[in-house]
Amino acid sequence: MLIYIICLGVGLVFTLISAFFGHVFGGGHEGHVDGSGGHAEAGVDSSDMPGVSVLSPTIIASFVTAFGGFGIILSQFPATKAPIISAPLSVLGGFVIAGTVLLLLRSLFSHTQSSSESKVASLAGMTATIISPIPVNGVGEIAYVQAGSRYTAPARLEDGTTALGNGKLVRITRVVGSQFYVAPTE
C-alpha cells in the first residue's frame, strides 16, 4: 500500500509543480526564440509534428498518479487486497488513464493546430498586387490573399524584361523556394 501512496503523491506533486512553474515562468518569453508563440509538449515521438508524445512528462505523470490511485482503491477491497491482484489491475488502470489523457491532448492539439503559412502548391494562377515595384531583372514585393489571410512575398517578373509599378495586378506563375514569379494580367 505504501508504494501506491508514494506514486499517487509523486504524481500529484509533479502535476502541481508543473502547473505552478508553467504558470509563473511560462507566460513571459524572456530568453525564448520568437516564433509562432506556441508551445509543444516535450517527449520522444516518431513524427516531426508538435504534440504530445507517449513518453512525455505529462503522460508519465498521469500513469504514475493513476497507478497510485487505483492501487489505493483496490487495496481497500478484500477480493483485490493482495498485491498480486491489485498491482496488475493498477498498472492496467494507469495505462487506461494515461492513454485517455494522451488521446484527449492529441485530439485537442490536432483541432487547434494551424499554420500562418499558406500552401505554396495552390498559389500558381492566383492574382496578386504589386506593393513594391518590380524592376527589370530585379525583385519587388507582392501581396496576395489566400484562405482569408493576406500574405506578402518577394517577387520577380517571369520574363524579366519589363518593370511594373505599385498597384498593378499580376498572376503568380510559380514559386521557387521563397521567390515568387509573376506575370502581368491581361
Walk me through this protein's architecture:
With 186 residues, the chain is of the alpha+beta class. The chain has 2 domains: 2-112, no CATH class; 120-184, OB fold (Dihydrolipoamide Acetyltransferase, E2P), CATH 2.40.50.140. It is 39% helix and 19% strand. It has a 5-stranded mixed barrel with strand order 1-2-3-5-4. Strand 2 (140-146) and strand 3 (149-157) form a beta hairpin. The chain is rod-shaped. Residues 27-48 have low confidence and may be disordered.
Q: Within the largest sheet, what's the order of strands?
A: 1-2-3-5-4
- What's the oligomerization state? single chain
Order of helices and strands: HHHEEEEE
What is the tally of beta strands? 5
Please give the largest β-sheet: 5 strands, mixed, barrel
Structural class: alpha+beta
In what range is the share of β-strand residues? Answer: 15-25%
Residue share in helix: 25-40%
Please tally the helical runs, counting DSSP H or I stretches of 4 or more residues: 3
Low-confidence stretches at least 5 residues in length (pLDDT < 50)?
27-48
Radius of gyration: 27 Å
The overall number of domains is 2
CA distance, first residue to last residue? 81 Å
